[in-house]
Amino acid sequence: MKIAVISNLYKPYTRGGAERIVELTVQGLKQAGHDVFVISTKPQKGIEVSVESDVRVYRFRPLNIFYYLDDYKYHFLTRFIWNIIDVFHFSSAQIISNILRDEKPDLVITHNLKGIGMLIPLAIKKLEIRHIHVLHDIQLVNPSGLMIWRQEKSFMQNGFLSKIYQFILRRIFSNVSKAVFPSEWLKNFYWEHRFFQKSEKEVLRNPVLPPPTVADIKKVKQNTFLYLGQLEEHKGVSWLLDCWIKNQIQSKLIIAGKGNLNLDRYKNAGNIELIGFIERNGIEDLFKRSDFLIFPSLCYENSPTVIIESLQNATPVIVADIGGSAELVQESLSGFVFKPKNEGELIAAIQKTTALSNLEYTGMSFNAQESVKGLDLAAYIEKLLE
Q1: How many C-alpha atoms does 340 have within 13 Å on its Cβ side?
Q2: CATH topology for the 2-204 domain
Q3: Pairing verdict, β 47-52 and 55-60
């Protein structure tokens, strides 16, 4: 079957876990014997076609005020105008429509479309091609894709302009053949906002590739915790670090990642190690050094890839119960759950980890790895195409 995969970003232009899922999907489709091509964006002007890992990749620069990955450089008003153009981006829809006419795919799988043009579903509908849309966040309800804890009723979520935005996108995406959600929470969220009412809906956990070597089950605790991800305020990193210092936690906390937060003030804390961005080939060793991953997010996450990768590497998780994150963790079996930004519950969870015997910890490490064994790529592709 010939399949088109459309995403606002595709390697090497990436921002987070969504692009990793797009990459895995393309890889899985190729392995299953399908003829796959990708349509995405690039920061340079013009349209180009290349072959990358035996996959045809079409890239173009959408006509807008700035390129999607440069949004952080602009103030609110400029981003607001950019979003209006993005919603009604006839130029992008026409470019993609022309590519689809030439390629004649049997199926189109779309991922995040913000930054490449929100009118794409209408172009697919006009060409009468089956369309599967994979959700990664709440960007069809809120352009930022973010909903912060205790800001659920804010103007950005429920204001007049948000209602108009949702009304328009609800109709643009109304004819999707199938909507795929990596978490029950995200499926329910979109249902509550009356999206995809005529579409088939399926919860399908994000896939993971088996590591080059299967991680060993951990036998001995190392008194070390890990944060791995974006260094942004809404990820709860500053709150976690302040909590660590305030409560004089003696265990080591490793902070790995990149972002806009300036963490220089924590450099002299003896039990905090700031190691910056880690390439993918270094992540496995990072998990080996850590007893638990801590995921303290203050925003409603969908199905964070880093949690799945941690469990795959036999590393249990301490996770904030916000959005779909906690769906991946079984309390006291593969990790611990705490209420977002609840210092007392986080400290209690850490105390539970320190009270574990090495034998009990080994059991949690085993449970963590077992919990994600069904998330292999081949099974994901098979269910995706059903």
Answers
A1: 19
A2: Rossmann fold (3.40.50)
A3: antiparallel
Q: Where in the chain is the domain with CATH 3.40.50.2000?
A: 2-204, 224-370
Residues in CB range of 185: below 8 A, 6 or more apart:
300, 302, 323, 324, 327
pLDDT tens string 122-144? 999 999 999 999 999 999 999 88
Four-residue CA torsion sign, 367, 369, 375, 379: negative
Tokens (6 digits) for 286 = 């990072």
State the alpha helices, DSSP H only, in 203-274.
Answer: 237-246
Alpha carbon 318 to its chain's center: 18
Q: Give the CATH H-level superfamily of domain 224-370.
A: Glycogen Phosphorylase B; (3.40.50.2000)
Residue-level pLDDT at 158? 76
Helical segments of the chain, H only: 17-31, 76-87, 90-103, 120-126, 155-158, 160-172, 184-192, 237-246, 283-288, 305-312, 343-355, 358-370, 377-384
d(CA 178, CA 204): 12
pTM of the complete model: 0.89
